[in-house]
Fold this sequence. Notes:
This protein has helices spanning 3-11, 64-72, 87-91, 118-121, 131-139, 226-237, 246-261, 274-287, 305-316, 327-334, 340-361, 374-380, 417-427, 431-434, 454-473, 526-539; strands spanning 53-58, 78-82, 95-100, 126-129, 143-159, 173-186, 192-196, 204-206, 211-214, 266-269, 291-297, 321-325, 367-369, 407-409, 482-496, 499-512, 520-521, 543-548. It has 561 residues and is an alpha/beta fold. It folds into 3 domains: 19-237, Class I glutamine amidotransferase (GATase) domain (Rossmann fold), CATH 3.40.50; 246-434, 3-Layer(aba) Sandwich (Rossmann fold); 448-548, GMP Synthetase, Chain A, domain 3 (2-Layer Sandwich). A 9-stranded mixed sheet has the order 2-1-3-4-9-8-7-5-6, sandwiched between helices. A 5-stranded parallel sheet has the order 12-11-10-13-14, sandwiched between helices. The radius of gyration is 25 Å and the shape is globular.
Amino acid sequence: MNNKEFNQSADKSFRVTTSGDMEVSTYLEIAKEIGGEKPVATGEAVSGVETEAVVVIDFGSQYSLLIARQIRELHVYCELVSHETPWEKIAQLNPRGIVLSGGPASVYEHDSPKIPAYVFEKELPVLGICYGMQAMTYQLGGLVEKSLKREYGHAVLHISNMDIPLLAGLPEAITVWMSHSDKIDKMPPGFKSLAYTENTPVAVMGNSKNMYGIQFHPEVVHTPQGKQILENFVYKICGCHGNWTIANFINDSIEKIKQQVGDGKVINAISGGVDSSVVATLIHKAIGKQLTCIFVNNGLLRREEAERTLNVFRLNLGMNVIYVDATERFLERLKGIVDPEQKRKSIGEEFIKVFEEEASKIGEVGFLGQGTLYPDVIESTSSANKASVKIKTHHNVGGLPSDMTFKLLEPLRYLFKDEARQVGIELGLPEEMVWRQPFPGPGLAIRIIGEVTPEKLEILRSADWIVMDEIKKAKLYRQLWQSFAILTDVKSVGVMSDYRTYGYLVALRAVTSNDAMTADWARLPYDLLARISNRIVNEVALVNRVVYDITSKPPSTIEWE
């Protein structure tokens, strides 16, 4: 398989999401001084235009967060909220329209989630997707019944009314992605059928009040023209201006950080990754010398990582950085621990203790800056609407002790990874830092299955170095979301130099993704895999077998622990 074929394969990754019940964003003033018909260029601002947003009401679909992501890419601020969120909180966002997500329930079940009354009372444009369409039908007097034939996968949508704004610019027939077992048997009063598929007579419906329902999922890549439908909704129907940009986010965040911190001091953990680097730079722009960065070498880093990180921050960014070598301390804390959740929490707790100790040396510190992103929060949060469950505790989110003395400063909390990278580019960070593949907060501890020991760390560092070296030589580093080695707790029999060996099994993991909410395993060229395997077995002591992980997320996670 050559690189061209790899690229084509990577583009076909199946992107879906888990979802959670998120609070209404703190970035309520995001565009208060921004305006214009088109996205505002860097540094430009036009006063007098109020904020605008499109709100996605979550009914538990695995695709819910993708809707928000797609709309944000259209330069319209969008946020995911629970169906139980009161109007008072949503009103603060000044919504121009509401999207009702899909979900696993059936509307005729007695405990199925319901659309809040204000969705109908406020007379805002509404787009119901899958379950959202069915719930709208049911609550407005239509009829939803179990379908005799479940429709899942690709379908051809035939548009019967080409004049409606929601489907403007589309051909008469398009490919869409279906995932439903219920159907609209009777539309609510005032609605008309606007498109159909072979198995779904009412695949799109609408009325004169700008309320639309679509049975398919426009937010997934399997609906190629889905983004056009969402764009039609936010611009042609909701009348949005498209004034949410990264430049505006930066300006707004800087002002908010200044207000929140005042004359206080902030410490920020840096790891060399894009998240912590962007947060540190953003905070530094806001408060300058009030920020002190702390780089903790927890002994769980990759080869040469500490040296490279210090050089970038001290030489390139000119920040005040305190270096702490806490290797022995963390390894002692991890002794005997094999449970991955306990590893994460132990590392998170130890980090905070180190920070508190270092902070006490520089005077009173009130804030801890962190590079928490939206996917971190989603995966660490159990939804109040019972639509999703906690996947794992993230070091930045659930791995922190409840009695810590700092207030958290998390300006990227509602951004996706690619948005954080755009912020980094806008702030002028070095390219090698902005495009660095994600590295988990707990480091190599969660890439060693079982107990973490100095010997295992050295084995994994050597194997990981080879993976990175070969991936970069193949010029695939930027195309992959992550690529790394895992040291399993499995040993197997092998033969080397005519002698029996009993060595460790190393697993390789390489995935493509846009935001870490979902990922597809990368179709790496066989020759590349062969080179990596051959080098690991020959160059890394105590390893005699290499395997490649070909599972996607979901059902797996990207990391093994």
